[in-house]
C-alpha cells in the first residue's frame, strides 16, 4: 500500500514537473568538440534524470554481484540451521514417544547440521539412554559438566543413572552436587533426602528437611513427620548396636525427639514408653501412653502398657487399664484392651460385655457381615472356654478368626511387617508402613497379627545398604 502511494506520488510529481516545464519553455545549447546540441530545458532535465537512475541501477547491480558469494553462503547456512532445528524438534518428539533408535538418528543429523554440541547434547544423551546405550549417555552427561550452563542437566542425568544402577553412594554425591547448583529446586531436595535415606545418613536427611522447611519447600507437617520417623530410625540404630556400644541413653533421646516432633506417630510413643520404663521411669512411661491413648488409641499402646511391670494383682491391672482408657473410653480399642485384662482377671462377664459392645459397634458402622478382626474372635473363644468350657462355641469363634486384623503394611510393596520400621525392609521405602488391614491375601493364607507379648519397637533396616553409615 505504501509502495502504491509512493508510485502515485512520483507519477503526480513527474506530471506536475512536465507541465511546469511545458509552461516555461527555454533553450539549452551545448557546444563540445566542434559539435552543437540545441534542446529544451525539459529534455535536459529528463536526460539528467535518466542518467542518474541508470547509474544508481548499475551501482546496485555491482553491489549485488560483489555480495553474491557471501549471501549464498549465509542462505545455505540458514537453511542448514532450519533443517537442524527441525531434526532437533523431531528428535525431542521421538524421545517423548520413547523411540530411542529414531531419536539417535535425528540427534546425529541435528548435530551435523547445527554444529552446536551444547544444543544437541541433551537430546543425544536422552536418545542414547532410550536406545539402551548408557555408556554413550554417560559420556554426554559428563561432557555437560564442563559447561556451566549445562552442568545441572549433566548432574541430573548422571544421578538418574546412578539411581538406576543402585549406586547409592555415587547418587548421594551427585545429589549433593545438584543441591549446590540449584539449592531451591524441589526435585533436588527430594532426591537429596532420598539418597541420604538410602545410605542411612539420618542426621543429614533430617538437616535437609530442616533446610527445606526453612525455605518453605516442604510443608511443616510433612517435615516434622519425616524428622520424627528419622529420629526413630536413629533410635533403632542405637538400640541395634550390641554389646558395650549399645547406647540406651542416646536411643531414649532419639525416641523423645521423635515423640515430640510427631505425637501421632504411635511407634514413637510406644518406643519412648518402653525405653522410659526400662530406665526405671515407669510413671513417665505411663503418662506418655495415657496421653497417646487420649489422642489415638492403638493396640500397641495397650500392649506396652501391659508390659510395664508395676506391682499388683490382675485386678490391679484392670484398674490400671481403666486409667489408660479413661481419656477415650468409648473407642473400640479401649473396650478390647479392657476385655483382655478382665479376661485375665477371670471377670468373664465383664470381658464378654466389652467384646459384645465392640462387635455391635463394628456391625452398626460397617454392616452385619463386617470383619471384627481375629483378636476379638479369639478373645470370645477364650471366654467361652474359660467361662463355660464350651469347646464347640469356642470353635465357632475360632473359625471366624481367619479374618485379618490390622497390621503394619507397606503402602509401596504391600508386605506385612507385623512390626513397624522406619524403612520397609522389602522395598526400601521410607515411612511407607501404615496400620491397615491386609488386602489381596492369597486364598487361605493368614496375615501376620500383632503379638501382644512382643514389645513393639523400631527394627534396624534389614537391607545392608540401608544400614547407617
Ligand atoms: Zn515396602
Descriptive report:
With 469 residues, this protein is mainly α. It is 67% helix and 4% strand. The protein is built from 19 helices and four strands. It has helices spanning 2-23, 41-97, 100-114, 117-130, 134-145, 151-165, 168-181, 186-198, 202-214, 220-240, 248-261, 266-278, 282-295, 299-307, 314-325, 332-344, 348-366, 374-388, 391-399, and strands at 27-32, 35-40, 407-410, 433-436. The strands form two sheets. A two-stranded antiparallel sheet has the order 1-2. Strands 3-4 form a two-stranded antiparallel ribbon. α2 (41-97) packs parallel to α4. It is elongated and about 155 Å long. 34% of the residues are buried. The model is unreliable at 441-469 (pLDDT under 50). Bound molecules: zinc ion. Zinc ion binds at residues 410, 412-413, 415, 424, 426-427, 429, 432.
Amino acid at each position: 500500500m505504501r509502495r502504491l502511494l509512493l508510485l502515485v506520488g512520483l507519477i503526480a510529481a513527474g506530471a506536475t514537473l512536465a507541465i511546469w516545464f511545458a509552461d516555461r519553455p527555454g533553450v539549452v545549447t551545448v557546444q563540445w568538440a566542434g559539435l552543437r546540441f540545441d534542446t529544451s530545458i525539459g529534455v535536459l532535465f529528463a536526460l539528467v534524470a535518466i542518467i542518474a537512475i541508470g547509474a544508481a541501477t548499475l551501482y546496485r547491480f555491482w553491489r549485488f554481484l560483489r555480495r553474491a558469494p557471501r549471501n549464498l553462503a549465509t542462505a545455505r547456512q540458514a537453511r542448514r540451521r532450519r533443517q537442524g532445528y527441525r531434526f532437533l524438534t523431531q528428535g525431542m518428539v521421538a524421545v517423548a514417544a520413547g523411540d530411542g533408535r529414531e531419536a539417535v538418528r535425528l540427534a546425529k543429523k541435528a548435530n551435523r547440521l547445527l554444529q552446536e554440541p551444547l544444543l544437541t547434547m541433551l537430546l543425544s544423551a536422552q536418545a542414547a539412554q532410550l536406545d539402551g546405550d548408557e555408556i554413550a549417555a554417560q559420556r554426554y552427561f559428563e561432557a555437560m559438566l564442563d559447561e556451566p550452563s549445562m552442568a545441572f542437566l549433566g548432574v541430573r542425568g548422571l544421578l538418574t543413572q546412578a539411581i538406576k544402577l543402585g549406586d547409592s553412594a555415587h547418587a548421594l554425591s551427585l545429589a549433593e552436587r545438584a543441591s549446590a547448583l540449584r539449592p531451591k529446586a524441589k526435585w533436588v531436595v527430594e532426591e537429596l533426602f532420598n539418597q541420604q535415606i538410602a545410605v542411612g545418613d539420618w542426621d543429614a536427611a533430617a538437616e535437609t528437611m530442616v533446610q527445606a522447611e526453612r525455605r518453605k519447600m516442604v510443608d511443616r507437617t510433612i517435615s516434622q513427620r519425616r524428622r520424627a520417623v528419622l529420629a526413630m530410625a536413629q533410635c533403632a540404630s542405637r538400640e541395634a548396636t550390641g554389646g558395650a556400644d549399645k547406647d540406651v541413653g542416646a536411643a531414649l533421646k532419639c525416641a523423645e525427639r521423635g515423640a515430640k516432633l510427631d505425637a501421632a506417630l504411635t511407634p514413637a510413643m510406644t518406643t519412648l514408653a518402653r525405653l522410659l520404663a526400662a530406665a526405671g521411669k515407669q510413671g513417665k512411661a505411663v503418662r506418655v501412653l495415657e496421653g497417646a491413648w487420649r489422642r489415638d488409641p492403638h493396640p500397641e499402646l495397650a500392649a506396652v502398657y501391659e508390659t510395664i511391670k508395676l506391682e499388683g494383682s490382675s485386678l490391679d491391672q484392670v484398674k490400671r487399664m481403666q486409667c489408660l482408657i479413661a481419656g477415650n473410653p468409648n473407642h473400640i480399642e479401649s473396650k478390647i484392651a479392657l476385655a483382655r485384662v478382665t479376661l485375665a482377671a477371670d471377670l468373664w462377664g465383664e470381658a464378654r460385655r466389652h467384646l459384645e459392645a465392640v462387635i455391635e459397634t463394628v456391625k452398626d458402622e460397617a454392616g452385619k457381615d463386617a470383619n471384627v478382626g481375629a483378636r476379638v474372635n479369639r478373645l470370645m473363644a477364650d471366654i467361652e472356654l474359660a467361662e463355660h468350657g464350651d469347646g464347640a462355641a469356642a470353635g465357632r469363634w475360632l473359625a471366624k478368626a481367619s479374618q485379618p486384623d490390622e497390621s503394619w503394611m507397606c503402602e509401596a510393596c504391600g508386605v506385612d511387617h507385623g512390626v513397624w520400621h522406619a524403612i520397609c525392609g522389602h522395598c526400601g521405602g521410607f515411612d511407607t508402613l501404615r496400620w491397615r488391614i491386609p488386602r489381596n491375601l492369597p486364598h487361605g493364607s493368614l496375615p501376620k497379627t500383632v503379638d501382644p507379648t512382643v514389645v513393639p519397637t523400631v527394627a534396624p533396616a534389614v537391607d545392608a545398604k540401608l544400614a547407617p553409615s
